[in-house]
Amino acid sequence: MLSRALVPLSRVAVSRFALGVRGFGASALVSKTAVKAAAIGGKKPAATNAKTLVKAKSAAAKPKRAAAKPKKRVAAKPKKRVVAKPKRVAAKKPTKSDLHEKVINSTRPIVKLPKQAPSAYSLFIRDRWKNVEPREEGTEQAVAFAAVARETSSAWKALSDAGKHQYIKQSDALRSQQAQAVRQWWAGVDRGQVALENQRRRRYNRRVAQKLVKGPRMPLLRDPLAPKRPSSAFFLFMKERLVGTTGPISETAKAASAEWKSLAEAAKAPYVAKAVAASAAYKTAVAKYASSS
Questions:
Q1: Do 103 and 48 sit in the same domain of this protein?
Q2: Rounded distance, CA 7 to CA 15, Å?
Q3: What per-residue confidence (pLDDT) applies to 161?
Q4: Which terminus of the chain has a lower count of CB atoms within 10 Å, N or C?
Q5: How far apart are CA 132 and CA 145, in angstroms?
Q6: Which of 168, 188, 80, 83 is nearest to 124 (CA)?
Q7: Which pLDDT tens digit goes with each residue over 211-236?
Q8: Same domain, 101 and 162
Q9: Among candidate residues 161, 171, 160, the one with its CA nearest the CA of residue 121
């Protein structure tokens, strides 16, 4: 009973105290409702001041803002795909064998001989073509190269020996000059380069034989100053049989070959002795030439 009587007394006392407080400014005032709520619930009253009241009134007076429009979503641009560059691998240095194979398989000559001297017929063709007037293609006067070549060939055959003599003499003079130039070239050329060029030509000739490359075979480079190889016993016998023959050489060679096979060793001995002596002289000359060059 005592506790029930104290509760209304405490409420009345608090309300009287709140109403009796004056002169301390707006910050010290406490609303009745806040005091009652605090007394009933047992919580402390929330303090209010003039600034909070002004803010509340101004917020209530302001019109509500319209809801912001949703922004359009812009599709993101696809990122560029960066492809990693392959790393550069350092090239291997070619070996001597690789360089050797590259040189041999090349189509370019390693060394070049001086140009050959023109023949008497080639000089005649040059003079013949100088006198030929230029003719436009597609006209009635146009002449094919084959027709002109036939005319030149027939004119050379019809030419007298005196007419051919001047061309032959001129060709011989050019050939002697060319032979001297070849000797000078061989005297100063590197023999190793010549050996490589001959290897290249041999490989090219194999390709021609296998029909992998079209064209004629290339002759090997021979040193005109070097000693010539001697003939064998059979070729010495063949030379004797070919002297004074008037018939075809092929038939004479067949007959000489059959005769050589039927000869006894005593009959072959003179030719064999000549061949052995020539071979010994050739070896001596080669050694002397190699030491001089």
A1: no
A2: 13
A3: 87
A4: N
A5: 12
A6: 168
A7: 888 888 999 998 888 888 899 999 99
A8: yes
A9: 171
Q: Tokens for 141?
A: 């006067």
Q: How many domains does the chain have?
A: 3
Residues 146 and 194 in one domain: yes
The CATH number covering residue 199 comes to 1.10.30
CA dist., res. 139 & res. 123, Å (int) = 29
Structural domain harbouring 128: 96-209
Measured distance CA(48)–CA(31) in Å, rounded: 9
* Encoded tokens for 234: 């059979």
Out of 209, 224, 244, a domain closes at 209
The vertex-34 CA angle with 30 and 61, nearest 5°, equals: 80
Whether the per-residue pLDDT at 39 is higher than 70: the answer is: no
Q: Is the pLDDT assigned to residue 286 strictly greater than 80?
A: yes
Say what the pTM is: 0.50
Structural domain contains residue 220? no
- Here the tokens at position 254 are 């067949």
238 lies in some domain: yes
Flag whether 137 is in a domain: yes
Q: Residue 18 domain-assigned?
A: yes
Identify the residue whose tokens are 């070959």. Answer: 257
